[in-house]
Amino acid sequence: MSPSSPPIESAVLVVIIGETVxxxxxxxxxxxxxxxGYTISQAQGAGRHGSRRGDMVSYNTNIEIxxxxxxxxxxxxxxxxxxxxxxxALIAFRxxxxxxxxxxxxx
Length: 107
Known about the structure:
The chain has two helices and six strands; from the N terminus they run βαββββαβ. It is an alpha+beta fold and 107 residues long.
C-alpha cells in the first residue's frame, strides 16, 4: 500500500439547532434542495428562548441537524430557515470544511 493523499473536496458543514416540531419542515427543505444526506440528533441547552432539557417526549425538546453541502446549497438552506425564526427557537450556522470525496456533496 503506497501512501497517498485521500481524495478531499471543499464543502460547507451546516448545523441547525431548533425545536423538534421543526424536524419535518426542515427535512422537507433539505429534500427540496436535493441534499443527499443529513444527521439528526437530540439536543439540550439554553438560549434566548429559555432552557431546553428534553425532559418530556416531544415537549420542550430540540434537535440538531447536520449536513455537508456546497456553499450555494448552504445559502438556500439559510434562506429557507428564515421563515421559522420568528415563531420558533432556531439557530443555524455553517463552517467551511474539507470532506472525503467518497460521497456526493449536494451542489
